[in-house]
Predict the structure of Rhodopsin domain-containing protein.
Amino acid sequence: MAAPSASDITYMMAHATEDRRPNFITANSICLALAVIAVALRFLSRSLARIPFQLDDWTIIIALAIHIVFCGTMLSLVHFGMGRHVIFLTDVKSFTIIALTAETAYNVAIMFTKVSILCLYYRLFPLAWFKKAVWALGIFVVAYSVPQMFGTIFQCVPISSKWDPTVAPKCIDYAKLIIVCGIINIVTDFLMLALPVPVLWSLHVSNHRKLVLSVMFLLGGFVCIISIVRLFYAQHVATVDPTWDLVWPATMSGIESASAIVAACIPTYRPLINKIRHGEAEENTVQRPTGVSTIGGSKKRFFSRSKPTKRTSGSEVSSGEYPLYDRLGKGNDNSASQGRTPVGPSPGEIHVKTVFHSNAV
Protein backbone atom coordinates (compact mmCIF):
# COMPACT_ATOMS: atom_id res chain seq x y z
CA MET A 1 0.00 0.00 0.00
CA ALA A 2 1.50 3.27 -1.15
CA ALA A 3 1.83 6.03 1.41
CA PRO A 4 -0.49 9.01 0.88
CA SER A 5 1.11 12.37 0.13
CA ALA A 6 0.61 15.49 2.20
CA SER A 7 -2.05 16.73 -0.23
CA ASP A 8 -3.82 13.35 -0.01
CA ILE A 9 -3.89 13.55 3.76
CA THR A 10 -5.18 17.11 3.60
CA TYR A 11 -8.02 15.99 1.33
CA MET A 12 -8.89 13.06 3.60
CA MET A 13 -8.97 15.27 6.64
CA ALA A 14 -11.26 17.70 4.84
CA HIS A 15 -13.60 14.79 4.02
CA ALA A 16 -13.32 13.01 7.34
CA THR A 17 -17.09 12.74 7.72
CA GLU A 18 -17.53 10.70 4.52
CA ASP A 19 -18.67 7.17 5.30
CA ARG A 20 -19.43 4.27 2.97
CA ARG A 21 -19.77 1.71 5.75
CA PRO A 22 -23.60 1.54 5.89
CA ASN A 23 -23.90 0.77 2.17
CA PHE A 24 -20.97 -1.65 2.34
CA ILE A 25 -22.47 -3.58 5.25
CA THR A 26 -25.93 -3.66 3.65
CA ALA A 27 -24.63 -4.88 0.29
CA ASN A 28 -22.55 -7.69 1.79
CA SER A 29 -25.38 -8.76 4.10
CA ILE A 30 -27.81 -8.96 1.18
CA CYS A 31 -25.31 -10.93 -0.91
CA LEU A 32 -24.81 -13.37 1.94
CA ALA A 33 -28.55 -13.82 2.48
CA LEU A 34 -29.33 -14.29 -1.23
CA ALA A 35 -26.67 -16.98 -1.64
CA VAL A 36 -27.84 -18.89 1.44
CA ILE A 37 -31.51 -18.70 0.37
CA ALA A 38 -30.66 -19.80 -3.19
CA VAL A 39 -28.83 -22.91 -2.00
CA ALA A 40 -31.51 -23.68 0.60
CA LEU A 41 -34.21 -23.57 -2.10
CA ARG A 42 -32.05 -25.81 -4.27
CA PHE A 43 -31.94 -28.50 -1.60
CA LEU A 44 -35.64 -28.05 -0.84
CA SER A 45 -36.34 -28.69 -4.51
CA ARG A 46 -34.06 -31.74 -4.44
CA SER A 47 -35.87 -33.05 -1.39
CA LEU A 48 -39.33 -32.56 -2.88
CA ALA A 49 -38.35 -34.44 -6.02
CA ARG A 50 -36.47 -37.11 -4.03
CA ILE A 51 -33.34 -36.47 -6.07
CA PRO A 52 -30.15 -37.60 -4.30
CA PHE A 53 -27.31 -35.12 -3.91
CA GLN A 54 -24.87 -35.17 -6.79
CA LEU A 55 -21.47 -33.64 -7.43
CA ASP A 56 -22.98 -30.34 -8.58
CA ASP A 57 -24.77 -30.05 -5.22
CA TRP A 58 -21.66 -30.73 -3.17
CA THR A 59 -19.57 -28.24 -5.16
CA ILE A 60 -22.21 -25.52 -4.72
CA ILE A 61 -22.10 -26.19 -0.97
CA ILE A 62 -18.34 -25.57 -1.08
CA ALA A 63 -18.90 -22.42 -3.13
CA LEU A 64 -21.46 -21.19 -0.59
CA ALA A 65 -19.13 -21.92 2.33
CA ILE A 66 -16.33 -19.94 0.67
CA HIS A 67 -18.77 -17.15 -0.18
CA ILE A 68 -19.74 -16.98 3.49
CA VAL A 69 -16.04 -16.63 4.35
CA PHE A 70 -15.75 -13.85 1.78
CA CYS A 71 -18.72 -11.91 3.16
CA GLY A 72 -17.53 -12.47 6.72
CA THR A 73 -14.08 -11.10 5.98
CA MET A 74 -15.58 -8.15 4.13
CA LEU A 75 -17.76 -7.26 7.09
CA SER A 76 -14.87 -7.68 9.51
CA LEU A 77 -12.82 -5.17 7.51
CA VAL A 78 -15.26 -2.48 8.59
CA HIS A 79 -13.89 -2.84 12.12
CA PHE A 80 -10.45 -1.80 10.87
CA GLY A 81 -11.58 1.15 8.78
CA MET A 82 -13.07 -0.17 5.54
CA GLY A 83 -15.55 2.37 4.20
CA ARG A 84 -13.68 5.39 5.56
CA HIS A 85 -10.52 7.11 4.40
CA VAL A 86 -7.23 5.38 5.09
CA ILE A 87 -6.19 7.89 7.75
CA PHE A 88 -8.69 6.09 10.01
CA LEU A 89 -7.13 2.67 9.43
CA THR A 90 -6.50 1.19 12.88
CA ASP A 91 -4.45 -1.97 12.17
CA VAL A 92 -2.59 -2.21 8.87
CA LYS A 93 -1.42 -5.82 9.37
CA SER A 94 -4.83 -7.23 10.31
CA PHE A 95 -6.53 -5.27 7.55
CA THR A 96 -4.07 -6.56 4.93
CA ILE A 97 -4.29 -10.20 6.01
CA ILE A 98 -8.08 -10.16 6.07
CA ALA A 99 -8.22 -8.36 2.72
CA LEU A 100 -5.94 -10.98 1.12
CA THR A 101 -8.14 -13.71 2.61
CA ALA A 102 -11.23 -12.08 1.14
CA GLU A 103 -9.66 -11.72 -2.32
CA THR A 104 -8.60 -15.36 -2.30
CA ALA A 105 -12.02 -16.49 -1.07
CA TYR A 106 -13.68 -14.63 -3.93
CA ASN A 107 -11.53 -16.47 -6.50
CA VAL A 108 -12.19 -19.86 -4.88
CA ALA A 109 -15.95 -19.24 -4.63
CA ILE A 110 -16.21 -18.25 -8.30
CA MET A 111 -14.21 -21.31 -9.35
CA PHE A 112 -16.35 -23.78 -7.39
CA THR A 113 -19.55 -22.12 -8.59
CA LYS A 114 -18.49 -22.56 -12.20
CA VAL A 115 -17.45 -26.14 -11.54
CA SER A 116 -20.88 -26.77 -10.00
CA ILE A 117 -22.64 -25.40 -13.08
CA LEU A 118 -20.49 -27.55 -15.36
CA CYS A 119 -21.20 -30.63 -13.23
CA LEU A 120 -24.91 -29.91 -13.57
CA TYR A 121 -24.51 -29.59 -17.34
CA TYR A 122 -22.61 -32.88 -17.43
CA ARG A 123 -25.42 -34.67 -15.66
CA LEU A 124 -28.31 -33.02 -17.50
CA PHE A 125 -27.11 -33.50 -21.05
CA PRO A 126 -25.63 -36.96 -21.72
CA LEU A 127 -24.21 -36.17 -25.17
CA ALA A 128 -20.67 -37.28 -25.97
CA TRP A 129 -19.58 -34.01 -27.60
CA PHE A 130 -21.24 -31.99 -24.86
CA LYS A 131 -19.49 -33.91 -22.08
CA LYS A 132 -16.13 -33.39 -23.79
CA ALA A 133 -16.84 -29.65 -24.03
CA VAL A 134 -17.79 -29.54 -20.35
CA TRP A 135 -14.59 -31.33 -19.38
CA ALA A 136 -12.46 -29.00 -21.49
CA LEU A 137 -14.11 -25.88 -20.10
CA GLY A 138 -13.90 -27.18 -16.52
CA ILE A 139 -10.17 -27.92 -16.84
CA PHE A 140 -9.64 -24.45 -18.29
CA VAL A 141 -11.56 -22.79 -15.42
CA VAL A 142 -9.44 -24.57 -12.80
CA ALA A 143 -6.25 -23.98 -14.80
CA TYR A 144 -6.59 -20.19 -14.72
CA SER A 145 -8.24 -19.93 -11.29
CA VAL A 146 -5.50 -21.66 -9.29
CA PRO A 147 -2.65 -19.41 -10.55
CA GLN A 148 -4.91 -16.41 -9.92
CA MET A 149 -5.27 -17.46 -6.28
CA PHE A 150 -1.52 -17.71 -5.81
CA GLY A 151 -1.03 -14.44 -7.68
CA THR A 152 -3.42 -12.76 -5.26
CA ILE A 153 -1.74 -14.14 -2.15
CA PHE A 154 1.83 -13.56 -3.32
CA GLN A 155 1.35 -10.33 -5.26
CA CYS A 156 4.18 -9.02 -3.10
CA VAL A 157 6.85 -11.16 -1.43
CA PRO A 158 7.51 -11.39 1.35
CA ILE A 159 3.84 -10.90 2.25
CA SER A 160 4.87 -8.95 5.35
CA SER A 161 6.04 -6.14 3.06
CA LYS A 162 2.37 -5.25 2.63
CA TRP A 163 2.23 -3.91 6.18
CA ASP A 164 5.90 -3.56 7.19
CA PRO A 165 7.58 -0.59 5.46
CA THR A 166 11.01 -1.80 6.58
CA VAL A 167 10.78 -4.92 4.39
CA ALA A 168 11.79 -4.52 0.74
CA PRO A 169 9.05 -6.05 -1.46
CA LYS A 170 9.20 -7.76 -4.84
CA CYS A 171 5.79 -7.30 -6.45
CA ILE A 172 4.08 -8.36 -9.65
CA ASP A 173 1.89 -6.01 -11.66
CA TYR A 174 -1.27 -7.00 -9.83
CA ALA A 175 -3.46 -4.63 -11.85
CA LYS A 176 -2.53 -6.49 -15.05
CA LEU A 177 -3.23 -9.83 -13.38
CA ILE A 178 -6.72 -8.63 -12.42
CA ILE A 179 -7.41 -7.40 -15.96
CA VAL A 180 -6.20 -10.59 -17.66
CA CYS A 181 -8.00 -12.93 -15.27
CA GLY A 182 -11.08 -10.72 -15.32
CA ILE A 183 -11.30 -10.91 -19.11
CA ILE A 184 -10.83 -14.70 -19.03
CA ASN A 185 -13.52 -14.91 -16.34
CA ILE A 186 -15.97 -12.99 -18.52
CA VAL A 187 -15.18 -15.11 -21.59
CA THR A 188 -15.79 -18.34 -19.67
CA ASP A 189 -19.07 -16.88 -18.36
CA PHE A 190 -20.32 -16.35 -21.91
CA LEU A 191 -19.09 -19.78 -23.03
CA MET A 192 -20.95 -21.44 -20.16
CA LEU A 193 -24.09 -19.50 -21.06
CA ALA A 194 -23.97 -20.51 -24.72
CA LEU A 195 -23.00 -24.16 -24.22
CA PRO A 196 -26.43 -25.68 -23.34
CA VAL A 197 -28.56 -23.56 -25.68
CA PRO A 198 -28.34 -25.77 -28.83
CA VAL A 199 -29.09 -28.87 -26.74
CA LEU A 200 -32.08 -27.23 -25.07
CA TRP A 201 -33.54 -26.24 -28.43
CA SER A 202 -33.21 -29.82 -29.68
CA LEU A 203 -35.56 -31.12 -26.96
CA HIS A 204 -38.79 -32.65 -28.24
CA VAL A 205 -41.00 -30.08 -26.52
CA SER A 206 -42.84 -26.97 -27.66
CA ASN A 207 -41.02 -23.78 -28.59
CA HIS A 208 -42.58 -22.13 -25.56
CA ARG A 209 -41.05 -24.74 -23.27
CA LYS A 210 -37.70 -24.43 -25.06
CA LEU A 211 -37.81 -20.67 -24.55
CA VAL A 212 -38.62 -21.07 -20.86
CA LEU A 213 -35.75 -23.51 -20.36
CA SER A 214 -33.33 -21.29 -22.28
CA VAL A 215 -34.26 -18.23 -20.24
CA MET A 216 -33.83 -20.26 -17.06
CA PHE A 217 -30.26 -21.09 -18.03
CA LEU A 218 -29.49 -17.71 -19.59
CA LEU A 219 -30.33 -15.83 -16.39
CA GLY A 220 -26.63 -16.25 -15.72
CA GLY A 221 -26.16 -13.43 -18.22
CA PHE A 222 -26.68 -11.05 -15.32
CA VAL A 223 -23.48 -12.47 -13.80
CA CYS A 224 -21.62 -11.57 -17.00
CA ILE A 225 -22.76 -7.97 -16.68
CA ILE A 226 -21.68 -7.86 -13.04
CA SER A 227 -18.28 -9.33 -14.00
CA ILE A 228 -17.75 -6.59 -16.57
CA VAL A 229 -18.72 -3.85 -14.10
CA ARG A 230 -16.50 -5.38 -11.42
CA LEU A 231 -13.52 -5.48 -13.80
CA PHE A 232 -13.98 -1.78 -14.51
CA TYR A 233 -13.64 -1.00 -10.80
CA ALA A 234 -11.16 -3.70 -9.81
CA GLN A 235 -8.45 -2.67 -12.27
CA HIS A 236 -7.87 0.47 -10.21
CA VAL A 237 -6.21 -1.33 -7.31
CA ALA A 238 -3.19 0.95 -7.10
CA THR A 239 -4.42 3.56 -4.65
CA VAL A 240 -3.20 5.44 -1.59
CA ASP A 241 -6.67 5.22 -0.05
CA PRO A 242 -7.64 1.52 -0.25
CA THR A 243 -10.14 1.56 2.61
CA TRP A 244 -12.16 4.10 0.65
CA ASP A 245 -11.41 3.45 -3.03
CA LEU A 246 -11.76 -0.35 -2.86
CA VAL A 247 -15.24 -0.33 -1.37
CA TRP A 248 -16.94 -0.54 -4.76
CA PRO A 249 -14.67 -3.24 -6.24
CA ALA A 250 -15.17 -5.31 -3.07
CA THR A 251 -18.92 -4.78 -3.20
CA MET A 252 -19.09 -5.80 -6.87
CA SER A 253 -17.07 -8.93 -6.07
CA GLY A 254 -19.64 -9.92 -3.46
CA ILE A 255 -22.52 -9.25 -5.84
CA GLU A 256 -20.85 -11.29 -8.58
CA SER A 257 -20.18 -14.24 -6.28
CA ALA A 258 -23.73 -14.23 -4.88
CA SER A 259 -25.29 -13.82 -8.33
CA ALA A 260 -23.25 -16.72 -9.69
CA ILE A 261 -24.48 -18.99 -6.88
CA VAL A 262 -28.09 -17.94 -7.50
CA ALA A 263 -27.69 -18.54 -11.26
CA ALA A 264 -26.21 -21.98 -10.56
CA CYS A 265 -29.23 -22.92 -8.43
CA ILE A 266 -32.09 -21.60 -10.59
CA PRO A 267 -32.08 -24.52 -13.09
CA THR A 268 -32.69 -26.93 -10.19
CA TYR A 269 -35.91 -25.23 -9.02
CA ARG A 270 -38.28 -27.00 -11.41
CA PRO A 271 -39.62 -29.53 -8.85
CA LEU A 272 -40.21 -26.70 -6.38
CA ILE A 273 -42.06 -24.68 -9.02
CA ASN A 274 -44.16 -27.73 -9.88
CA LYS A 275 -44.99 -28.18 -6.20
CA ILE A 276 -46.17 -24.57 -5.95
CA ARG A 277 -48.10 -24.56 -9.23
CA HIS A 278 -49.47 -28.10 -9.36
CA GLY A 279 -49.18 -29.38 -5.82
CA GLU A 280 -46.87 -32.22 -6.77
CA ALA A 281 -43.11 -31.90 -7.28
CA GLU A 282 -42.87 -34.84 -9.66
CA GLU A 283 -46.13 -34.32 -11.52
CA ASN A 284 -45.87 -34.14 -15.31
CA THR A 285 -48.80 -32.12 -16.62
CA VAL A 286 -48.28 -32.97 -20.30
CA GLN A 287 -47.93 -36.11 -22.34
CA ARG A 288 -44.39 -37.41 -22.62
CA PRO A 289 -43.33 -37.03 -26.25
CA THR A 290 -41.74 -40.03 -27.94
CA GLY A 291 -40.49 -38.55 -31.19
CA VAL A 292 -37.01 -38.44 -32.63
CA SER A 293 -35.21 -35.14 -33.05
CA THR A 294 -31.84 -34.38 -34.54
CA ILE A 295 -28.79 -32.27 -33.91
CA GLY A 296 -26.68 -31.78 -37.01
CA GLY A 297 -28.25 -34.78 -38.72
CA SER A 298 -27.69 -37.10 -35.78
CA LYS A 299 -30.59 -39.11 -34.35
CA LYS A 300 -31.40 -39.45 -30.70
CA ARG A 301 -34.46 -40.69 -28.86
CA PHE A 302 -35.23 -38.66 -25.73
CA PHE A 303 -38.06 -40.77 -24.33
CA SER A 304 -38.98 -44.32 -25.01
CA ARG A 305 -41.36 -46.94 -23.68
CA SER A 306 -38.77 -49.57 -24.34
CA LYS A 307 -35.49 -50.29 -22.68
CA PRO A 308 -32.39 -48.61 -24.10
CA THR A 309 -30.84 -50.52 -26.97
CA LYS A 310 -27.71 -52.43 -26.24
CA ARG A 311 -24.35 -51.81 -27.83
CA THR A 312 -24.37 -53.22 -31.33
CA SER A 313 -21.88 -53.13 -34.20
CA GLY A 314 -19.57 -50.76 -32.41
CA SER A 315 -22.31 -48.28 -31.63
CA GLU A 316 -22.21 -47.19 -28.02
CA VAL A 317 -25.45 -46.33 -26.28
CA SER A 318 -25.72 -44.49 -22.97
CA SER A 319 -28.78 -43.67 -20.93
CA GLY A 320 -28.97 -40.51 -18.87
CA GLU A 321 -29.46 -40.70 -15.14
CA TYR A 322 -31.28 -37.35 -15.28
CA PRO A 323 -34.05 -37.55 -17.94
CA LEU A 324 -34.26 -34.22 -19.70
CA TYR A 325 -38.00 -33.92 -20.08
CA ASP A 326 -38.94 -35.16 -16.63
CA ARG A 327 -36.41 -32.87 -14.90
CA LEU A 328 -36.56 -29.81 -17.14
CA GLY A 329 -39.69 -30.02 -19.26
CA LYS A 330 -42.35 -30.45 -16.61
CA GLY A 331 -45.18 -28.01 -16.44
CA ASN A 332 -47.91 -26.82 -18.78
CA ASP A 333 -46.89 -27.10 -22.42
CA ASN A 334 -49.68 -25.49 -24.39
CA SER A 335 -48.44 -26.29 -27.88
CA ALA A 336 -47.80 -29.88 -26.91
CA SER A 337 -51.33 -30.35 -25.59
CA GLN A 338 -53.40 -28.41 -28.12
CA GLY A 339 -55.50 -30.56 -30.42
CA ARG A 340 -54.95 -33.85 -28.63
CA THR A 341 -55.88 -35.48 -25.40
CA PRO A 342 -53.05 -36.09 -22.94
CA VAL A 343 -52.37 -39.73 -22.32
CA GLY A 344 -51.91 -40.45 -18.65
CA PRO A 345 -49.53 -43.36 -18.01
CA SER A 346 -50.54 -46.01 -15.54
CA PRO A 347 -48.36 -46.19 -12.45
CA GLY A 348 -45.21 -48.09 -13.19
CA GLU A 349 -46.21 -48.72 -16.82
CA ILE A 350 -43.76 -46.40 -18.54
CA HIS A 351 -40.07 -46.54 -17.83
CA VAL A 352 -38.66 -43.22 -18.94
CA LYS A 353 -35.14 -43.40 -20.31
CA THR A 354 -32.84 -41.03 -22.14
CA VAL A 355 -30.99 -42.82 -24.90
CA PHE A 356 -28.29 -41.42 -27.16
CA HIS A 357 -26.50 -43.26 -29.96
CA SER A 358 -22.81 -42.40 -29.99
CA ASN A 359 -22.54 -42.84 -33.75
CA ALA A 360 -24.78 -39.79 -33.99
CA VAL A 361 -22.78 -37.39 -31.84
Q: What stands out?
A: The first strand starts at residue 156 and ends at 157. Residues 283-361 have pLDDT under 50 and may be disordered.
